[in-house]
Design goal:
- By secondary structure, the protein is an alpha/beta fold.
- It has helices at 44-51, 74-80, 97-108, 124-133, 149-161, 179-195, 207-213, 231-235, 238-245, and strands spanning 4-15, 18-29, 33-37, 59-64, 67-68, 82-85, 167-171, 199-203, 216-221, 224-229.
- The protein folds into two domains: 1-81 and 165-249, P-loop containing nucleotide triphosphate hydrolases (Rossmann fold); 95-164, no CATH class.
- 35% of the residues lie in helices and 25% in strands.
- The chain is globular.
- The chain binds adenosine-5'-triphosphate.
- Residues 15, 18, 20, 38, 40-46, 220 line the site of adenosine-5'-triphosphate.
- One of its GO terms (biological process) is L-isoleucine import across plasma membrane.
- InterPro entries: AAA+_ATPase, ABC_AA/LPS_Transport, ABC_transporter-like_ATP-bd, P-loop_NTPase.
- This is Amino acid/amide ABC transporter ATP-binding protein 1, HAAT family.
Length: 249
C-alpha cells in the first residue's frame, strides 16, 4: 500500500509581483523518485525551499510523516529526515571527500566543533561505505578541489545521505556534467537511493533522464502544479510537449 511521506497543502508565496507558489498541493509517496519539470522561473526551486523550511509560505502547510513542519527552522526539518542537494555541490573544497562526509556525520550527531575534531568522529566506516555506494571509494582521500564535476556531484549526494535522510530533495542532480556522464551518474544515484531506502524529488530539465529514472513526474508552470502522473503519461501530454519539452521524447 502506498504511504505519503511528504504532503504540501495549498502553498502560496509571492516575491513582489511574482507568484512563485500558487495554491500548490502535492503528495510524495515513500519509496518513489519524483521528477519536477517546468520552464525557468516556474517555481520548482521555491517548492523545494518551502519543503526544507528555507522559505516560509504565506499560506498553506507542509506535512512530513504526518507532522506539520511548516513553522520549523530548516535544521529541525533536516533532523526529521529531509535532506537537500544543490545544483552546485555545497562541499568544503579544501577538505577530502571523506572529511566532507565526516563533517556531515558530525552535524547529524550535533557535535560542536566538527572541523577541529574530524579525526575523532566515529562514523568513518559508515562514511566509507556511503562513498563506495556512490562509486567514489577510490577518491575518499582526495581533496574535493581535485575531483571532476561528476565526482563532486556524487560526493555531494553521499554527504546528503550521511545525514540518514528519509527524503532527498535535489536541484538538477546532473547539471554541469557532460551528457555522456549524466546517465552514469543517475544510474549510481538511483541505486544508492534504493539501497539507503531514501525517497527522492529531483528538479530536472533533461527529459531523457526524467523518462528513464522518474517513477512519477510533476509539471510546474507559473507557480502552479499543472499535472502529476507517470513519465509515460506526462511526457506524451500535448500541453507538456508544447509548453515544457518542445518536442516528444
Ligand atoms: N528569494 C526570492 N526573491 C525574489 N524572487 C524570487 C526569490 N526566489 C524565487 N524568486 C522568483 O520566483 C520565481 C520562481 O523562481 P524559482 O527559482 O522557484 O523557479 P524555477 O522553476 O526553479 O526556475 P529555474 O528552472 O530557472 O531554476 C522566479 O520568477 C524567481 O525570480
Amino acid at each position: 500500500m502506498s504511504e505519503i511521506l511528504l504532503e504540501a497543502r495549498n502553498l502560496q508565496i509571492s516575491f513582489g509581483g511574482v507568484v512563485a507558489a500558487d495554491d500548490v498541493s502535492l503528495a510524495i509517496e515513500r519509496g518513489k523518485n519524483l521528477a519536477i519539470i517546468g520552464p525557468n522561473g516556474a517555481g520548482k526551486t521555491t517548492f523545494l525551499n518551502i519543503c526544507t523550511g528555507w522559505i516560509k509560505p504565506t499560506k498553506g502547510k507542509v506535512y512530513f510523516e504526518g507532522q506539520d513542519v511548516t513553522p520549523l527552522p530548516p535544521r529541525r526539518i533536516v533532523r526529521l529526515g529531509v535532506a537537500r542537494a544543490f545544483q552546485i555541490p555545497q562541499l568544503f573544497t579544501e577538505h577530502t571527500a571523506l572529511e566532507n562526509l565526516l563533517i556531515s556525520a558530525a552535524a547529524r550527531e550535533q557535535l560542536r566543533h566538527p572541523l577541529q575534531d574530524l579525526h575523532r568522529i566515529r562514523e568513518r566506516a559508515e562514511m566509507l561505505h556511503l562513498l563506495d555506494m556512490v562509486g567514489c571509494a577510490d577518491v575518499a582521500d582526495r581533496l574535493v578541489v581535485e575531483l571532476s564535476e561528476g565526482q563532486r556531484k556524487l560526493v555531494d549526494i553521499a554527504v546528503a545521505l550521511a545525514l540518514r535522510p528519509k527524503l532527498l530533495l535535489m536541484d538538477e542532480p546532473t547539471s554541469g556534467v557532460a551528457s555522456s556522464e549524466k546517465f552514469k551518474i543517475m544510474e549510481i544515484l538511483v541505486k544508492a537511493l534504493a539501497e539507503a531506502k531514501v525517497t527522492s524529488v529531483f528538479v530536472e530539465h533533461d527529459m531523457g533522464i526524467v523518462s528513464r529514472y522518474a517513477d512519477e513526474v510533476a509539471v510546474w508552470a507559473a507557480g502552479r502544479l499543472q499535472m502529476q502522473g507517470s513519465p509515460e503519461e506526462i511526457l506524451r501530454h500535448p500541453d507538456v510537449i508544447r509548453d515544457v519539452i518542445g518536442e516528444a521524447v
